[in-house]
């Protein structure tokens, strides 16, 4: 890490690069630490494997939220409150079907969901 730069500052710089879609800058910053920090090597592998999914500038232009807290809370509301009730057991197919229905309902797209199902 650069002298005078705290770990928080370093991480903040990487977050800003991620938001701007500068994945190569992130990888270069991690490579500096890869020889001595195993976690840096794991992060390099993760970013390299998932870079096609890490299109944060595109997501932001579409008005999509990329905050993990918001996404995790959404998963809890959509998934956990429906699938993890006492005594419930689901097949993968049944869970996928109910989640598709629940997502359509909660996003205000239920009519379109049924129209697509009827046309299939």
Number of continuous helical runs: 7
Question: What Rg is obtained from the alpha carbons, in whole angstroms?
Answer: 20 Å
**Helix-strand pattern:** HHHHHHH
- Using the alpha-carbon principal axes, give the shape: elongated
Strand-pairing-aware structural class: mainly alpha
For the biggest sheet, the summary is: none
Helical amount among residues, as a percent range? over 70%
Number of strands: 0
From the N-terminal CA to the C-terminal CA, the straight-line distance is 56 Å
Strand content: under 5%
Low-confidence stretches: none
Average pLDDT metric:
90
List descriptors.
120 residues; 72% helix; mainly alpha
Describe the structure in your own words.
- Helices cover 72% and strands 0% of the residues.
- It has 120 residues and is mainly α.
- α2 (23-34) packs antiparallel against α3 (38-50), α5 (68-83) packs across α6 (92-106) and α6 (92-106) crosses α7.
- The protein is elongated and about 60 Å long.
């Amino acid at each position: 890490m650069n002298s005078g730069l705290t770990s928080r500052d370093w991480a903040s710089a990487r977050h800003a690069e991620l938001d701007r879609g500068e994945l190569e800058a992130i990888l270069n910053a991690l490579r500096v630490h890869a020889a001595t920090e195993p976690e840096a090597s794991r992060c390099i592998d993760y970013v390299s494997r998932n870079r096609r999914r890490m299109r944060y500038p595109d997501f932001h232009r579409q008005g999509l939220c990329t905050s993990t807290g918001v996404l995790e809370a959404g998963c809890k509301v959509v998934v956990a409150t429906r699938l993890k009730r006492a005594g419930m057991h689901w097949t993968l197919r049944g869970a996928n079907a109910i989640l598709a229905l629940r997502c359509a309902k909660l996003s205000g797209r239920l009519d379109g969901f049924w129209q697509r199902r009827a046309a299939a």
